Amino acid sequence: MRYQGWLTWVTLGLAVVFVPMALDSKPAPINFTGEIDKVIEKVDPNFKTTTQQTQKSETSASDTPIESIVQNRKLSRTYYYHFDDNVSAGAKAVFENAVNVYNQTGIVKLVPGTGTDRQNSITFFVYSKQMPSNGNTTMIESGHGGPQIIQQTGWNAYTANHARAGLNVYYPSAAIRKSVAIHELGHALGLDHSHYRNSVMYPVDQGNTQLSSGDIGTLKTIYGTEETK
C-alpha cells in the first residue's frame, strides 16, 4: 500500500507545520480528521463535561454553553464599557465593531462609560504574551476574556458583572481581528466555548463575525428576551 504510506507522511507533515490560532486561554488546535472534540479535551479536560452540564441545565442542545459563574445569575442587560489607556486605535476599532454586533441583537445594550460598582461593566484591554513552543508547533493565544460576578446579598442586594475582554497584541495579525474581539466579548457577557464551528464562541478562530442562532439563544437565556431600554 505505497499510496497509503505516502498519504500518511503528507498528513503528518501538515500537522507539524500548522500553527493553531487559539482564541484564548482555553485553546484547542484544529485537527484534520474531524475528531475535534478529542483534541479539545486534551487541552481543556473540562470542556466536554462543562458543555454537557450547561446544556442540560440552561440551554437547548444547539445553544452555546454559559460560563459557569454566570449560570443562574440575574444580570441587567445594560453594560458600560471603557478602554485601558494602552489600547491602540486599531484595537479600539475592532472592539467597537464587536460592541455593535451584540447591540444589534437588542438583547444587551453596551454603552460607553465606566458605570458604578452596582452596574455591569466591561474593560477592554490589550496585552503581550509570547506562547512557548511545543515541539514543532506553537499554540497562539489571540485573546482572553471573561466575566467577574460581584454580588451583595441582604439589604440593598445586587448582582453585577465586572467583565474584561482583551487581545494579545504580541500576535497582531492573529489578534486584532473583529472575529477575535467578538469571541472575547462573548466570554465577558457570559458565553462559554461552543462545539459548533458556526458559533463565534468556537475555540479556534474561524473568522466568524455573525452570531449564530445558538449564541443568540444563550444570550436570551442569560438576559431575557425583552427589548433593552
UniProtKB/TrEMBL annotation:
Keywords: Hydrolase, Membrane, Metal-binding, Protease, Transmembrane, Transmembrane helix, Zinc. GO terms for molecular function: metalloendopeptidase activity; zinc ion binding. One of its GO terms (biological process) is proteolysis. Gene3D superfamilies: Collagenase (Catalytic Domain) (3.40.390.10). The keyword Zinc applies. Pfam families: Peptidase_M10. CDD domains: ZnMc_MMP_like. Residues 71-225 form the Peptidase metallopeptidase domain. One of its GO terms (cellular component) is extracellular matrix. It comes from the Bacteria. The keyword Oxidoreductase does not apply. The chain crosses the membrane at residues 6-23. This is Zn-dependent protease. It comes from Secundilactobacillus silagei JCM 19001.
